[in-house]
Amino acid sequence: MLKSDKEKNLQEVTLIRAFAIITLVAWHCYCSYICWGIADTPFNGLYSKVFRVIAPIAQMPLFTFLAGYLFCYLHKYCNKYSDFKLFIKNKARRLLIPYIVLGFIINMTQLTRQHPIDLFWGTPNHLWYCLMLFYCFIINWIVENKIGRWLNYVLASVSFAAAIYYGGQFLDKSPLGILIPVFYYCYFFLGYYVYENKDRIMVLLLKWLPLVIVLWLLSLIFTVRGHAQVITSVLFILMVLFFAQKIQSIPSCIETIAKYSFGIYVFHQWFIWNITHYEPMSGIINEHYVLFPILLFVVIFGVSLGLTHLALKTKIGKILLA
Question: What's residue 222's pLDDT?
Fold first, then answer.
């Protein structure tokens, strides 16, 4: 089947989404060495530096940018989501229901957690991102359709400043996780704005790409207590978008990974957390600090992909993971 011009223009979304989910799974496979405090090995520092380069802030900014980017395309250029009530119902089904149902199941079956009240706080909960993204969608729709672009500029600026001040992200407890989107709305609106001005921005990126790369490298070098991570993430997003635009053909396996990305997101961390937090695994994680995370990635990514494929063949799976 031939793709329309609009579908071809969104091939970059498929590529970036696949890249983001692959590197997110990899990041979680190395969390024992990076941030979970499970392993103490000579490679801990190296792993942290590598993932600061290839997956700044665990790719959450990149995923959020993609959400805003795609939302602009669907809402503004495809005239979708014009009815606010239907829009809320759609986002509640796709984000809030998985957050409540899958979030509860996952929290109650993760070692050292099992606290259902965490759903009220938004975090610690593996699916906190769904709740945060729901807020971003609703805020953006209301501002763009009922108030005016000027407020989005204000909100994005405040969000950007807050993220820089606090060093990237804020996942402490807040009622209904209401504070979490404060640190991510800047990426969502950036995606919306970039798609809206894509042609002009791509021309500018082509012209100034060397400068963007230099600034990105400098932000990596001079990161102080994580505060430059936000700048690093924005520059990283622009580079990834630029190079994704240059790729003309997408392998079917990449399309499959992108299609199954939400299911992979749901399943992978669930398994990784329980495997790495199972006390008898501590010795293996510490002793085999090169081989273990590689094998963990291969197995968990494959299992998550397979489970998503099977789940989407069921009615419940389509409701929760589609």
Answer: 78
pTM: predicted TM-score of the whole model, two decimal places? 0.93
Q: What is the pLDDT of residue 118?
A: 79
Token pair of 79 as six digits:
């005239």
* Amino acid letter for position 21: I
- Helix, coil or strand: residue 32: helix
Confidence of residue 168 (pLDDT cuts 50, 70, 90): low
Provide the sign of the torsion angle of the four alpha carbons 248, 251, 256, 258, taken in this order: negative
Report the C-alpha gap between 187 and 242 in whole angstroms. Answer: 16
Q: How far apart are alpha carbons 72 and 55 in whole angstroms?
A: 24
Respond yes or no on whether the N-terminal peptide bond of residue 124 is cis (omega within 30° of 0). Answer: yes
> For residue 293, which of 20, 19, 27 has the smallest C-alpha distance?
27
**Separation between Cα atoms, residue 67 and residue 61, nearest integer Å:** 10
CA distance from start to end of the chain = 22
